[in-house]
Amino acid sequence: MTPRSSKNPTIIEVARRAGVSSATAGRVLGDYGYSSPEVQEKVRAAAAALGYRPNRLAKGLITGRTQTIGVVVGDIESPFYASVLRGIGDVARSGGFGVIVTNSDENAELEREAVQLLLEKQVDGLIVSSTFVDGPDHLREAVAAHCPVVQFDRITAGLETDSVVVDNVSATRSSIATMIAAGHSRIAILAELGPGQRDDVGSFVANTDLSSSDVRYHHPSWQRLLGYLEAHRAAAVEPDIRLIRRVAVYSSEAARKEALDLLTMRNPPSALFTADGVMSTGVLEATSALKLAIPEDVSLLCFDDLDWMQFVAQGITAIAQPAHLIGAAAAELLLKRLVEATRPLEHRILSAHLVERNSIAVRTDR
Description:
This protein is α/β, with parallel strands linked by helices. Helix content is 42%, strand content 14%. It has 13 helices and 12 strands. Helix 5 links the parallel strand 1 (68-73) and strand 2. The longest helix has 17 residues, at 323-339. The radius of gyration is 26 Å and the shape is elongated.
């Protein structure tokens, strides 16, 4: 048996071993053009014996495809994004594609750099959770250059692509309605309220209408605030603007400080709603520091059902997003687009559901 070299064998060596021309070996290993089944078998056997690994970039120069997908996420450490990436990877792998993942850290400039890097790597398409509200020139340029883009979690105004999102408004509205039905009229909300709304919180509370067609272009945290407001309006409960907290720095520490302020005010809320997992972590740190029991002292509802929530003593009631399905659907849409570039745009809206545990107390003193 010929010992394998530590250096990747060349196509010429594979061709020599198989007794064919290098052009024939290239067609077989590059999956283009025609070769007889017998020749294909000989070439692949020679490649396996030599330990040949195909050069995807070289293949891409011939076929116009590198069989890779580029993904840009906001926070690679987030459990939500981790589950989305698993969904993307599962579908991509089954379709013969590799995945290159980059992290924007919710920073617009870093996102631009990430997209540029992926385009330089000649990915066949992009799956992006963009930090941009509108004017995403880097993504428009990618589409114009015939690199298909699928947006997930957020939809950027002015960018017509396939997309996959969750119906944040209705999921939050129905879940907050559950809290109100349990007797809570003072429900605080802690949310990032990142890009997606130019007005301040007070103006948003006073003026935003659910029927507005631009709701889908808001950041998910604004959509969740909208669901919170709609539940209050439907129950004829006037929300206290002091209980709506915009966490300026996206971190659990910033959320902890806001929660401490809420829970020590003169007339504190009887319940808290956190708009994502980072906010939830900060709130749990605050209630622990104040030695408050959940739900006896304060009730809690969280958006995003994280693994640890089922292991807290009483369990945390949460709104679960189908994160894996979001990723899988985004990858499916991209693979479809690569096969049929002119197919109509597809926008998938997935549902989130309430996972009821024991963190919402029923109030009888209303």
